[in-house]
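Open question from group meeting: does this chain pack into something compact, or does most of it stay loose? Before anyone orders reagents, we agreed to write out a predicted structure and look at it together. Recording both the input and the output here so the notebook holds the full record.
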Amino acid sequence: MELTELFEIFMIVSFGVSWPLTVIKAYRSRTTKGTSLPFLLLIFTGYIWGIIGKLLAPSFKWYVLFFYVFNTVMVGANLILYMRNYKLDKLSAAS
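Structure tokens returned:
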């Protein structure tokens, strides 16, 4: 394993720990306040591009791809919760 791969794994694992915590916070808060939809969409798109890059790389490593996919799923969960929380915010404002 090259040193650059090791640092990439550290970065991806750090994000991998952070995203589930954000999912939990979004689920519990039941609001979109403090959440940026453009930010989530940009990160989601970035992970998709990262996955494509990993799949096209000559030295493809499955274990690194796993973390990219996991993080993409977590950001996707945040996007779904954003939509739920947006509806809850609208209902709250209407009442």
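Observations to bring back to the group:
The mean pLDDT is 93.
The radius of gyration is 16 Å.
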